[in-house]
Sequence to fold (253 residues):
Amino acid sequence: MSRTVLADLLRFIAANEQLPRCQERYKGYDRDTLGKLINAAADRVEEAEKAAAEAAAPKGKGGVKVRRASQVEEAARASAEELESAMNDSKAERERKRSERAAAAAREAEAAREEAARPPPRTRLYTDGAARGNPGPAGAGAVILSPEGHVVAKVGKYLGDNTNNFAEYMGLILGLKRARAMGIKELEVFSDSELMVKQLSGEYQVKAENLRPLFDEARTLLAGFADISVRHVPREENEAADEMSNRAIDQRM
Fold:
């Protein structure tokens, strides 16, 4: 095949053929891009033809002609290398995206596993106690929330003159008794009294004599639930129970 015909053939393919198999093989390239690459190859062939013609001019003694016929092959090879390089870049890009999708899928699967392993929400009990003076007018309060976060019970009790720690234990006891009366078996308890929570966990000892009976009663009530936990929370997360304990003082509930 002559060089001119080769360049013309490449341009004809670039202009008229749909190249379905090329598009299937190299999914990162559309029809227009493939056409441009083929046209570029045709340009390289024509450049090689021109260089070969110039090289074929008479040179040296006796009019010996030096013909660099290999330039066409070199141009074709260079075009093929450029095309392969572009295709390889596309493969690398596709591989990168495939890796990213696989990583995203793995993260989603891990999140789904964590969600499945997470225990379902349980009924929550928030308790608090307040004393205006220590000792002073005191009140206990508790609020029970359903697993969906709806308030299902509020209780409060005026305690007369008493200490804040006494009121904290009374708030817990009031809440536990109400939860048991409602038939609740699984419960998460929250209190802003770090002292009481750590005493119930065994981390702190109960040294105050007036708290020992309340501590024992609270432990007995806690043992009556099938599944229960007691956690300390900041005061700002316990506002509903705090409101009930102060209402108990104000209204002498």
Strands lie at 123-131, 136-145, 151-162, 186-191, 227-232. Confidence is low (pLDDT under 50) at residues 60-67.
